[in-house]
Amino acid sequence: MNLATGIGKTRLMGACIAYLRYEKGIKNFFVMAPNLTIYRKLKADLGNPSNSKYVFKGLDLFVDPPRIVDGENYDEFRQMQSFVNDVTINVFNISKLNSDSKVKAGQPARIKRLSEVLGESYFSYLQSLPDLCIFMDESHHYHADKSFDVINELRPILGVELTATPQIQKGSKKIPFKNVIYEYSLAHALNDEKYVKVPAVFTRKDFRPEEYTAQQLDHEKLNDGLRLHEDTKSKLEIYARTFNKPVVKPFVLVVARDTDHSKEIMKYIKSNDFFNGYYADKVG
């Protein structure tokens, strides 16, 4: 599925899991996360009812949360049988899965080692499940390395990929996915004005970019952007003091063409020519 960032891929994933449980009786799921931040978020969103973003709220089969097995506790799986809910969701960070799937110093891969508690390896246990379904969040991350080999070894009955970037990057070449069954792009989301914030574009009146060099244009954009940032920051502070609310600190994201361009921008932001060096220690 090609889905724009910010429209609720995790909620859709939860809806798919709920549908498969209600309609097909499937109870075993495996969710892949591309990094630690999303890994932690997925565990909370899928398994913590007190979390405001818990995806199974209001569903009778999920009043008791599903059992979450992750990269830290899968060795203790058999000791987690006290869960009322019969749905198990395995949540793994891809780097952890890759690491635990490698043979080291002649020893079997950790996830494939025999567990005395299980009577088999956890990997073998997953392979033996007759109803294992895999969901791959930001799935474009998994095509470029050995991750897909590990996933295929699990022999799932269903694999669902979710990403806002349905393509594989091989050097300078971009290879689009050939298995996209549904697409809801950022353009669709912006047009619907429902799921993402419509960006505001600020321009100067009667501005003539042809009168500037590329570097001068960069500098003008950065200066305008930071003035807007400071204005926003000031208004947020006033709002917080007026209504006794926590202060929200805005930030600025600068997108560069490439690494060399980003270095040029960084150098300018840290220089005394940019707001007298005020942001020299505030950029990273």
Automatic annotation (TrEMBL):
Organism in which the protein naturally occurs: Massilimicrobiota timonensis
Superkingdom of this protein's organism: Bacteria
Helicase/UvrB N-terminal domain mapped to chain residues: 2-167
The name this protein goes by in its record: Helicase/UvrB N-terminal domain-containing protein
Pfam families the record matches: ResIII
GO molecular function: ATP binding; DNA binding; hydrolase activity
